[in-house]
Amino acid sequence: MSFQGLSAYRPQMLGLLRIVAALLFFAHGTQKILGFPASDMSPALLTLPWIAGMLELVGGAALILGLFTRPVAFVLSGQMAVAYFMAHAPQSPFPALNGGDAAILFCFVFLYFVFSGPGAFSLDRASGRDG
């Protein structure tokens, strides 16, 4: 069985991965900053959780659109590395126990976008800024 023919769909699947990952990330920002879905989180203005929420909201929206994908993904990858080591790692060395699985996964998915670019369905590609 050959999977060779699937390579033709690489840009579309990369674009789909970017959109889905960004939608999940964006939801963390809407929860922190906009209170949707409702939660106990309501970070005070200009605190680290508020800054994280703004990065999730604005950066997530930019990645959904595929706008400035590489630099935004670089910043968000760094944010997730910092979040993991500040909030999760001190609780336990095991991600399954410290709740840091998503932070690690977001970190490396976003880092991949730095190198891969946005894939299909992006404003970057439509404008000719990135291919």
Automatic annotation (TrEMBL):
Membrane-crossing segments per the record: 45-65, 72-90, 102-123
This protein's UniProt keywords: Cell membrane, Membrane, Transmembrane, Transmembrane helix
Signal peptide start-end: none
Keyword set includes Transmembrane helix: yes
Membrane topology classification: Multi-pass membrane protein
InterPro entries, per database record: DoxX (IPR032808), DoxX-like_oxidoreductase (IPR051907)
Main location: membrane
Subcellular localization, as worded in the UniProt entry: Cell membrane
Any Pfam family: DoxX
Family: Belongs to the DoxX family.
Identification of the protein by name: DoxX family protein
Origin species: Paracoccus nototheniae
